[in-house]
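Technical annex, item 7. During the second reporting period the consortium partners agreed on a shared format for inverse folding records so that results from different sites could be compared directly. Each record opens with the tokenized structure and is followed by the designed sequence. A conforming record, contributed by the partner at site C, is shown below for reference.
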């Protein structure tokens, strides 16, 4: 089936019109004398066939002469005055937003329904009467809005062909946003308005209509310009020259159109316009990305984003998971892809600015009758000030969410309480909830008070939140409640300390606690918390199976105390993560002893990024081979002394030099290209293909081994990038450090960026000295804050690098950066 027609199949009136058309055409196509009849393939052709058929039927019914199919042109000629009156009314009333008319309105346009129905019978199908509740006067409307839009487009195209515009509404429409010279041109008769001007003006002025009242009109108008449609309208519309060149130009314009000020729905309609012009290749370029195992190698263009959204929306089967980042939309294509969430069960939208357009698109998915959206994950986003559409969507009775994630920039203070209230209204149905990055501020505790009454809530993620002690107190209340069924809790990157573990342990040892998975990585725990955890594991009531303590300074002494709990018969722990916990061979010995005990049930152990030594690794790997040992998975990757004593990273120090050919024109380099400073005056740098448009600079050296460097910085973001990263573009996202897939960046405000996805840590102070460690073959990139006697770990990336990495810097405000000489 033609995609243009398939798009409309959800509209009952279209199905009725299509049935009428096919009922009339198919028998005639079987007649060998009617080989010239073609099945309609566009929306405009379908409605034109419908008009032709209605004229034929009416003529056969009311004419004394026997009219035949060959009389279509004559039938049109004899009724065209009436059709143009109908068309003019259809257009002008549509432009004014009117779809119901009184008899007086019809008479203003010279339309006598009683006479018309006798003469041609057209209005028996085109019009229907509406009984007004408030008046006895009859009201009329087209049998469907699409029929009115068709006649409106027919009138406008007719005005173009006769080179005369006798409608002030149409003149005003064409003047809006047009060049001044057009005003005098529109008063001329005959009017010599090129077709491409007519269509481009109509496209521009239709797309700015927020509610889309001219969407179908525009599709019909474009469809009128095709020769296949004009052939059907012989006798009604003056045949013009072949416009195939203009059509191709309009197709190109629609494919390349850069729209940021109109709604995503209007962008979708432009894709439908392309289909109406018989552009058949666009959807084929994105069809493959509907499969779970396929994603684009390069960014999708804005129009491809709309086409992909259209494919997802038109699918009879909802998409299992819509992950925005998977599709690699261009920065200007993100908002054009978002409407797809209306036909998805899970939606993951990350690393974007949630502006009004995106919020309205998400809200429409939540409010749809029989909404299929059950999981909504809005993570690492910037939230706009007005989030009312999404809040209203969450409160809507059609909302069926059982999983919700919110993280990113903190919501506006005025909205936190409203958001909290909306989330609480969902609590009875939620199975999974994430509220990270302090996104709700003080309203978080209000929401947590309801966790104990959430009968289905099993997973709760509260990463990167402030006031963690109060959060723990709320969690203890929930965990000790008989109605709480929480099984998984994340408190990563929260400054969670030994004292907070002491608070939480009360809940963990409660007889009503059902928690099985606990993650408290990247915190400030020490060996003191391990004694508390050992008590928890030894408790008869503990159900913990999975525990993540990674990136905490536990040391061997902490591991030794923790292992006393692993040996207990009540311990149910099967997975333990101790990555980057400063464990050495002594810690391995303690773990080996615990694993050798009869009661230890540990199946998976992660000890990566520690200094285990070959001796420690050997002890554990040999024990793993023992048939009596429960351990199945052991990770001892990146076993290096530098992870125990971070200052040893300086053994990999490299000498760097800033590259003047990459420096933005408001950056001054000095001290033999070892220092960069942002200034207000543009520098007279020569043009260079590697020069950044932003306030950024890269180093000359491309690194692909193990390297470490330090910089003294003020208001400076520190990162690395591939040389192939864009230096300019339509949007700063394309060429800013960390905002694309070719760069990684630690922001001085305490945020990490990659591919425009952000993780916020809110360390409070801006580091004055930063250290960066790169192990290119292993795919490791680590950031540290440097103090005179120690290095504090900030963040580690573990990925696969495909090109040499160039250290780079983005200078904010009065920012400056100096490359340090490491002794």
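Designed sequence (site C submission):
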């Amino acid at each position: 089936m033609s995609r243009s027609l398939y798009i409309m199949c959800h509209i009952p009136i279209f199905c009725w019109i299509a049935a009428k058309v096919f009922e009339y055409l198919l028998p005639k196509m079987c007649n060998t004398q009617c080989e010239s009849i073609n099945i309609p393939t566009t929306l405009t052709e379908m409605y034109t066939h419908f008009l032709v058929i209605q004229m034929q039927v009416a003529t056969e019914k009311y004419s004394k002469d026997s009219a035949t199919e060959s009389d279509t042109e004559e039938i049109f000629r004899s009724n065209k005055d009436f059709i143009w009156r109908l068309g003019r009314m259809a257009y002008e009333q549509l432009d004014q937003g009117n779809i119901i008319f009184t008899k007086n309105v019809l008479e203003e346009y010279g339309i006598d329904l009683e006479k018309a129905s006798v003469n041609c019978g057209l209005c028996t199908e085109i019009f229907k009467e509406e009984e007004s509740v408030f008046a006895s006067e009859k009201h009329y409307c087209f049998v469907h809005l699409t029929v009115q839009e068709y006649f409106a487009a027919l009138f406008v195209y007719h005005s173009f062909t006769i080179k005369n515009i006798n409608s002030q509404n149409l003149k005003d429409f064409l003047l809006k946003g047009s060049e001044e010279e057009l005003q005098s041109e529109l008063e001329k008769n005959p009017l010599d308005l090129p077709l491409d001007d007519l269509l481009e003006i109509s496209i521009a002025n239709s797309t700015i209509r927020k509610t889309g009242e001219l969407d179908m009109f525009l599709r019909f108008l474009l469809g009128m310009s095709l020769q296949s449609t004009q052939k059907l309208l012989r006798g009604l519309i003056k045949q013009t020259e072949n416009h195939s060149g203009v059509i191709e130009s309009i197709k190109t314009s629609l494919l390349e159109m850069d729209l940021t000020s109109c709604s995503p729905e209007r962008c979708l309609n432009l894709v439908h316009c392309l289909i109406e012009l018989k552009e058949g290749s666009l959807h084929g370029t994105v069809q493959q990305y509907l499969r779970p195992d396929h994603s684009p190698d390069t960014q999708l263009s804005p129009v491809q984003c709309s086409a992909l959204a259209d494919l997802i929306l038109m699918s009879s089967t909802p998409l299992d998971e819509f992950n925005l980042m998977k599709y690699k939309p261009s920065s200007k294509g993100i908002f054009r892809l978002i409407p797809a969430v209306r036909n998805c069960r899970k939606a993951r939208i990350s690393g974007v600015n949630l502006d009004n357009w995106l919020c309205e698109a998400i809200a429409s998915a939540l409010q749809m009758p029989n909404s299929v959206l059950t999981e909504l994950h809005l993570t690492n986003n910037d939230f706009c000030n007005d989030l009312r559409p999404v809040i209203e969507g969450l409160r809507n009775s059609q909302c069926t969410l059982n999983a919700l994630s919110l993280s990113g920039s903190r919501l506006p203070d005025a909205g936190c309480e409203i958001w909290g209230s909306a989330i609480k209204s969902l609590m009875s149905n939620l199975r999974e909830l994430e509220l990270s990055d302090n996104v709700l501020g003080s309203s978080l505790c209000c929401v947590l008070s309801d966790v104990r009454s959430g009968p289905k809530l099993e997973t709760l993620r509260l990463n990167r939140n402030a006031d963690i002690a109060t959060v723990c107190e709320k969690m203890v209340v929930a965990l000790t409640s008989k109605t709480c069924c929480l099984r998984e809790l994340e408190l990563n990157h929260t400054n969670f300390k030994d004292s907070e573990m002491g608070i939480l342990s009360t809940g963990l040892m409660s007889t009503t606690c059902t928690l099985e998975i606990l993650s408290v990585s990247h915190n400030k725990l020490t060996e003191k918390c391990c004694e508390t955890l050992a008590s928890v594991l030894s408790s008869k009531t503990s159900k913990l199976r999975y525990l993540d303590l990674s990136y905490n300074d536990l040391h061997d002494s902490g591991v030794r105390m923790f292992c006393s709990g692993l040996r207990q018969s009540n311990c149910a722990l099967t997975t333990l993560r101790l990555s980057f916990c400063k464990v050495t061979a002594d810690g391995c010995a303690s773990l080996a002893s615990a694993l050798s005990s009869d009661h230890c049930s540990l199946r998976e152990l992660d000890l990566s990024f520690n200094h285990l030594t070959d001796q420690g690794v050997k002890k554990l790997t040999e024990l793993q081979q023992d048939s009596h040992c429960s351990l199945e998975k052991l990770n001892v990757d990146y076993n290096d002394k530098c992870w125990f004593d971070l200052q040893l990273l300086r053994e990999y120090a490299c000498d760097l030099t800033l590259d003047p050919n990459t420096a933005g024109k408001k950056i001054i380099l000095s001290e033999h290209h070892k220092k960069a400073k942002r200034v207000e005056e543009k520098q007279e740098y020569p043009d260079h293909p590697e020069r950044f448009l932003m306030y950024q600079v890269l180093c000359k050296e491309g690194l692909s081994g193990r390297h470490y460097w330090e910089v003294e910085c003020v208001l400076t973001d520190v990162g690395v990038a591939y040389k192939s990263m864009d230096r300019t573009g339509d949007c700063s996202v394309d060429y800013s450090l960390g905002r694309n897939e070719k760069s990684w960046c630690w922001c001085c405000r305490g945020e990490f960026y990659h591919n425009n996805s952000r993780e916020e840590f809110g360390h409070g102070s801006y580091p004055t000295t930063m250290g960066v460690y790169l192990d290119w073959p292993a795919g490791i990139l680590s950031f540290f804050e440097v103090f005179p006697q120690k290095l504090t770990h900030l963040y580690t990336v573990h990925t696969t690098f495909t090109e040499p990495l160039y250290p780079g810097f983005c200078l904010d405000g009065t920012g400056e950066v100096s490359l340090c000489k490491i002794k």
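The first strand starts at residue 101 and ends at 102. Residues 3-240 form one domain. All partners now use this format for quarterly exchanges.
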